[in-house]
Structures are given as structure tokens and as C-alpha cells.
């Protein structure tokens, strides 16, 4: 193996002012629309490789529709993977996404990406998490699995009959595959007015016949100011993976996020939002954010639309994201979309039970 892959509703009391949600929405979308077109190549630095990719993919279906920004307010689904200081309540969350038969699906751009080996032909990503109360705080467990693979065409040179230059023709294909997993246990409690959380995780990566395992931790704090909840987390602190005789550093990240604690009533709608700034391994700064608008024609039957913007790093997907959801009693169904996601595809679905 030459090198490792690159990482790529309820209304609230009258004390809450609708302007908060609108201000956050403006902050999330307007500045980011300009940042989204920036390229990491402008840094004029050598690329740094880390892994496995799953460490930067887990954010939840709701976050996918919000430009990758994790929802920091209320019951934060999949907080065990992202911000352990936001674990709260009792619940269960599931997210599922993937792609199938990337080549020849009618999308020429996707076919060109696949030919350059920028992404797998087939992939599936699954994340499960559950949380509850324990010892005066909250505990959560989570398991995420990312399985992907594809075919690499083997070419041979064939001369032209007119004596022209030779041209490559497909002589066969080699199938390849990889599996990644992250198992996490986290605990959160309130200390001196701040939410403090820590997560321990086991990280595994299998590529072909090479296998690697390591352990890592996430640590973070959170605080609610007025009706905004903020969180700061350092992720993936741990020893390198030893893969095929080579040390592969973990995708260490620092993530700062903020969002409305709940959606605010604005006329017949409820509006909320989230924004985050992540410093990726290697120095890339990736801002993202979005807003969600909810409408409930019947009490406890809430329909949700989401839109977000995220900075694109080296063409990895489109800058604009979309999402939708439905809330009913204790269940929320989510859908997220981002065009041409290079690893997991454009679609993701999720369910949260509280």
C-alpha cells in the first residue's frame, strides 16, 4: 500500500426573541457563501495525509442538511461522536448513507471522478448511538461503520494499425475494499456551570489484507448563553494507526460550534440554525452552517426544511447542502443531501427517538 487515503419544535416561552434565529441564519449563510469557493491549494503547502476517513464523516443526517454544522441545541443526536459535552436525555439515533455502482450511473462528472480514483464505486455508512442518565450525568455509546470498495482498471498498451501512437485499453480490473469502524463510550456532566464531556473510542481500519487498530479520546466543553448553545471539542487524540508498515496519524480536529437552543416562532414558522468552524488535520479551516425552517399545521406534527453552506476543500462535494425532516411526538425522521459527496454519496437518512 503506497499511502493512506486522504481524509477527506415545539415553540418556546415568550422570553425568546425571533431575531436570534434570524441573526444566526444570516451569520451562517452570508459569510460562508464567499468562503465556500476557496481552495486549499491557495495555501501553497504540501498536503498532509491522515485517516481513517470515517473520523471526519460522522456528523448525523441533520448536520448534513445544515452544511455539516452539528445541531448544538436541545437533544443533540449522535453527540457521542461529535461533541460529548452535548450528550443529554435518553434516546436512540441512527444514520444511514451510501452509494452504489458509481461508474456508469449516467453522471459524467461522477464517472470522471471515479476514473481518477477520487472515490469508491460502492460504499455504505452506518452510525448508531444511544444515551441515558447515569451517576448524576449522561452516558452514551455509539458504533459507526464505513464499508467501501470498487474496481481499478488494469490497462495495456495497444499499437494503432497505421503506426500511430499506442493507446491504453482495459485488460481487466482488480477489486479492492476497505472497512472502518469506530466504537465510542462517552460521559457528560455539568461542572461549574459548563457542560464537560469526554469520549473514549476504538478505531479500526482494514484495507485489503492490512489491518490496524488504535484508541483515541475526544474532550470538550459546552455552555448556553441566553438562547444559544456553544460547544468546543478536540477530537481524535491518540496514537497513530500502523497500516502496512506505515504510521498513519489520526484525523485530529478542533471543532467550535454554536446554534439556537430551540427554534423560534416567526409568524407561522419556527426557525433555528447552527454554525461551526472546524480545523482539520493539516491546517484546513472549514466553516459551515445552515438554517432549518419548521411548519406544524397540527400540534406535534412538524415538517422541516433545511439549507446549509460549507466550504469546499479541493472539490470534495458541492458547497450547498439540503435537508428535510418530520417530527411527531418522540420520533424525528431526517434526510440530508449534498451533491457529489466524494466518499459516501449525496444521500443520507436518519431517525431519532426520544
Structural summary, described in words:
This protein is 11% helix and 52% strand. The protein is mainly beta and 354 residues long. The protein has one domain (18-353): Beta Barrel (Porin), CATH 2.40.160. The chain has a 14-stranded antiparallel beta barrel.
List the helices and strands and how they pair.
Blueprint: H1 18-35, H2 54-57, H3 61-65, H4 79-82, E1 91-99, H5 108-115, E2 122-134, E3 137-158, E4 167-191, E5 194-207, E6 210-225, E7 228-237, E8 241-243, E9 246-248, E10 253-260, E11 264-266, E12 269-279, E13 285-298, E14 301-310, E15 320-328, E16 331-338, E17 347-353
Antiparallel strand pairs: 1-2, 1-17, 2-3, 3-4, 4-5, 5-6, 6-7, 7-10, 8-9, 10-12, 11-12, 12-13, 13-14, 14-15, 15-16, 16-17
Amino acid at each position: 500500500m503506497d499511502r493512506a487515503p486522504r481524509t477527506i419544535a415545539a415553540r418556546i416561552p415568550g422570553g425568546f426573541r425571533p431575531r436570534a434565529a434570524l441573526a444566526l441564519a444570516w451569520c451562517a449563510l452570508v459569510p460562508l457563501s464567499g468562503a465556500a469557493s476557496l481552495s486549499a491549494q491557495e495555501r501553497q503547502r504540501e498536503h498532509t495525509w491522515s485517516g481513517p476517513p470515517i473520523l471526519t464523516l460522522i456528523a448525523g443526517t441533520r448536520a448534513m442538511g445544515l452544511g455539516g454544522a452539528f445541531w448544538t441545541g436541545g437533544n443533540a443526536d449522535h453527540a457521542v461522536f461529535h461533541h460529548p459535552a452535548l450528550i443529554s436525555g435518553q434516546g436512540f439515533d441512527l444514520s444511514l448513507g451510501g452509494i452504489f455502482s458509481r461508474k456508469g450511473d449516467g453522471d459524467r462528472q461522477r464517472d470522471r471522478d471515479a476514473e481518477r480514483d477520487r472515490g469508491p464505486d460502492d460504499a455504505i455508512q452506518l452510525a448508531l448511538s444511544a444515551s441515558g442518565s447515569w451517576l448524576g450525568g449522561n452516558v452514551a455509546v455509539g458504533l459507526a461503520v464505513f464499508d467501501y470498495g470498487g474496481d481499478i482498471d488494469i490497462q495495456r498498451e495497444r499499437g494503432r494499425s497505421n503506426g500511430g501512437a499506442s493507446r491504453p485499453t482495459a485488460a481487466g480490473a482488480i477489486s479492492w475494499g476497505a472497512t472502518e469502524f469506530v466504537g465510542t463510550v462517552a460521559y457528560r456532566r455539568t461542572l461549574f456551570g459548563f457542560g464537560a464531556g469526554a469520549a473514549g473510542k476504538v478505531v479500526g481500519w482494514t484495507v485489503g489484507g492490512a489491518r490496524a487498530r488504535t484508541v483515541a479520546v475526544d474532550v470538550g466543553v459546552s455552555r448556553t448563553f441566553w438562547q444559544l448553545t456553544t460547544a468546543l471539542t478536540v477530537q481524535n487524540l491518540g496514537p497513530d494507526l500502523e497500516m502496512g508498515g506505515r504510521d498513519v496519524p489520526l484525523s485530529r480536529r478542533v471543532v467550535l460550534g454554536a446554534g439556537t437552543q430551540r427554534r423560534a416562532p416567526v409568524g407561522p414558522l419556527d426557525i433555528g440554525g447552527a454554525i461551526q468552524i472546524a480545523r482539520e488535520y493539516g491546517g484546513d479551516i472549514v466553516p459551515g452552517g445552515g438554517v432549518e425552517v419548521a411548519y406544524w399545521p397540527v400540534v406535534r406534527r412538524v415538517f422541516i426544511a433545511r439549507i446549509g453552506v460549507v466550504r469546499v476543500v479541493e472539490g470534495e462535494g458541492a458547497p450547498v447542502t439540503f435537508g428535510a425532516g418530520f417530527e411527531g411526538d418522540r420520533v424525528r425522521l431526517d434526510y440530508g443531501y449534498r451533491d457529489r459527496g466524494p466518499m459516501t454519496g449525496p444521500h443520507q437518512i436518519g431517525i431519532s427517538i426520544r
